[in-house]
């Protein structure tokens, strides 16, 4: 199957000037009149490095991957959109398990693709053989695997994803936004498969959602295509700077991951004590079902915000794993609401 769009294949990538200079007068940039005192590392009057070179170097070290196999940008959200921009023609099919991250469907609509969701099994288990069969029948351009899956927390293992890759020509995009809270990243296989793209982010495990840094890891051929559709200065200098700093102190993140895993276990065990259906999670959140109507609104009256869902997922909720105090407050409020329902 030919994946890349013809009009994209013929684009010559926009290349900003990267020559060394003594005096820079090539890009109509202004003087550094604001924030001139924040240090030489961050020159806010100059356009950012369009390739996010330093950031990609640090990501490369973090993942043990060649920086040439990485594209960085404004969150994995931008990465999802870039994949569609490069590969989706009107009417192409995009396949995914459902429920899953809603942005796949939203971007499918924006790019006039047809989104097809395969229902997960009982307990939201995702059956790779069903996915492979469906892919053979409908020949999707792209298959999205959210792993671990948002909102269910379900994790597919490497062998299942490799089985999928060995049985399809479709582009397989594995969204690993939460993989640090689990294990089984597909990053190590990017050179083994022509059709594998892995998406990652600093928004969750690194706790840096505000700076909007996400990135894609894939083989050189796909990376070259993505670079053609990416806008030249997509990631601002402040985000690049903060991202580099964080990656250089990644021990902090590893420590935080352990903390979240501990709290996830605590929260899971506490939820299990209630008449609630709780699903095991590999992310920094827990998915559960309660028959109490409008549970989210009742919690909100007590100042607590959780995620609710509509339609097929009415009565299902997703709560983020907080710190111990936040989790205790959530459990306390939940207990009050449930006791109130029974009285
Ligand atoms: C949170 C999340 C992201 C991250 O998006 P960013 O744009 O990087 O902040 C990506 N995919 C999934 C499934 C998510 O839940």
UniProtKB/TrEMBL annotation:
Keywords: Amino-acid biosynthesis, Aminotransferase, Histidine biosynthesis, Pyridoxal phosphate, Transferase. Transmembrane segments: none annotated. Residues 12-334 form the Aminotransferase class I/classII large domain. It catalyses: L-histidinol phosphate + 2-oxoglutarate = 3-(imidazol-4-yl)-2-oxopropyl phosphate + L-glutamate. The modification N6-(pyridoxal phosphate)lysine is found at residue 204. InterPro entries: Aminotrans_II_pyridoxalP_BS, Aminotransferase_I/II_large, HisP_aminotrans, PyrdxlP-dep_Trfase, PyrdxlP-dep_Trfase_major, PyrdxlP-dep_Trfase_small. SUPFAM superfamilies: PLP-dependent transferases. Its EC number is 2.6.1.9. Pathway: Amino-acid biosynthesis; L-histidine biosynthesis; L-histidine from 5-phospho-alpha-D-ribose 1-diphosphate: step 7/9. One of its GO terms (molecular function) is pyridoxal phosphate binding. Its cofactor is pyridoxal 5'-phosphate. GO terms for biological process: L-histidine biosynthetic process. Belongs to the class-II pyridoxal-phosphate-dependent aminotransferase family. Histidinol-phosphate aminotransferase subfamily. Homodimer. This is Histidinol-phosphate aminotransferase. The lineage of its organism: Bacteria, Bacillati, Bacillota, Tissierellia, Tissierellales.
């Amino acid at each position: 199957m030919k994946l890349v769009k013809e009009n994209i294949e013929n684009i010559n990538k926009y290349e900003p000037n990267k020559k060394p200079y003594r005096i820079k007068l090539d890009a109509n940039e202004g003087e550094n009149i604001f924030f001139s005192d924040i240090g030489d590392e961050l020159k806010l009057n100059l356009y950012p490095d369009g390739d996010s070179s330093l950031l990609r170097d640090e990501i490369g070290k973090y993942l043990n991957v060649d920086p040439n196999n990485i594209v960085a940008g404004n969150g994995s959200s931008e990465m999802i959109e870039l994949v569609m921009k490069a590969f989706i023609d009107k009417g192409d099919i995009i396949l995914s398990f459902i429920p899953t991250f809603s942005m796949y469907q939203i971007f499918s609509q924006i790019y006039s693709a047809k989104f097809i969701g395969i229902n997960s099994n009982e307990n939201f288990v995702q059956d790779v053989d069903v996915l492979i069969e469906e892919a053979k029948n409908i020949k999707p351009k792209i298959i999205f695997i959210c792993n671990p899956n948002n909102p269910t927390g379900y994790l597919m293992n490497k062998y299942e994803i490799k089985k999928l890759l060995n049985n399809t020509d479709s582009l397989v995009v594995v969204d690993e936004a939460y993989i640090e809270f689990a294990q089984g990243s597909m990053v190590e296989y990017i050179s083994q498969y022509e059709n594998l793209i892995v998406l990652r982010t600093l928004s969750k495990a690194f706790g840096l959602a505000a700076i909007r840094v996400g990135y894609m890891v894939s083989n050189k051929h796909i990376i070259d295509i993505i670079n053609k559709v990416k806008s030249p200065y997509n990631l601002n200098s402040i985000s690049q700077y903060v991202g580099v700093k964080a990656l250089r102190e990644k021990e902090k993140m590893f420590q935080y991951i352990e903390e979240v895993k501990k709290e996830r276990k605590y929260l899971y065990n506490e939820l299990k004590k209630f008449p609630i259906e709780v699903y095991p999670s590999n992310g920094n959140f827990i998915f559960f079902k309660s028959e109490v109507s409008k549970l989210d609104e009742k919690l909100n009256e007590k100042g607590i915000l959780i995620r609710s869902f509509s339609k097929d997922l009415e009565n299902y909720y997703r709560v983020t794993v907080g710190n111990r105090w936040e989790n205790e407050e959530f459990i306390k409020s939940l207990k009050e609401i449930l006791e109130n329902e029974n009285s």
